Amino acid sequence: MKGLVVKEKTGIQIDYDLEKPSPATGEVLIRVCSASINPYDVESAAGVYDAYFKEYGFDKPVQTGLEFSGVVETKGSKFNPGDRVFGYVHLITGWKTHAEYITIPESFIAPMPPNLSFQQAAALPLGIMTSLAVYEDLVQNKLNLNVLIIGAAGGIGVYATQIGKLFNHRITTVVGQKNTDFIKNLGADEVHASESFAIAESTEKYDLILDFSTRLTLKDCQKTLAKDGIFVPALPDDTNGGNSEHKQVGYLMVMQGDGLKLAKASHWIESNDIVPVIEATYSFNDYIKALAHLDNKGKTGRIVMTLVP
Cα-flanking dihedrals φ and ψ of residue 268, to 5°? Predict the structure, then answer.
């Protein structure tokens, strides 16, 4: 089978002679039809996660690709051959999705909503699970919060915006000027162009600030946070305060797929309360162009590669 592999001197390249995996107990074999491109993939190829791979005994030839859609090839306890599914793998262990076939625990996947194409389904899982982790787990299903999303047009922000409205929150977004109408059409109550927005000048008090731009710090946001408000940096570190134990810092890490969360969102998807957002699609053989597209500024949603037309 074919898949993307990381070569030390030449970076990511396609290999056509990989061995098809065999499912373990609790897993199914899936033929991948579409898979997303994520900043994780470039970081993984650059060795950012090598220490974690070593610690957890990661030994698969493909180490890039998190989200996917595809068709089940083997019978499991929940799924049967021919079932169309979508899902998210484990961040560290197990098969990654930039391969023709993967094995994955059945608990990580869910049936594809029937109104979606494979490309659309592959653009959804991480955004859905991250957004539900925010609104269900982090703020414990509270309603009517005042939420600020910085970088709302990206691969997670577009779903945090839509799902936030489903929880009856007031959503204020900050995006590039060219994406203001786009994010307004996704349901944002208020939209600011990032070129003219300065959080220090805001007179609002927000219960939740999601920074998908990775530009803000806890210090930047404290004046704007409500008394019990939470600041969530996408990439927490010592500089932005994300590694602190401050009571106003929230931490998000979607470590593995969650079929229950994906299934829960399916009725929203079928009723078009959640719509998939795709920046661009590429054939799997054009993976170099797809990866390069990550560097484009002002992207909306996900970049998706198609393995099966």
Answer: -65, -40
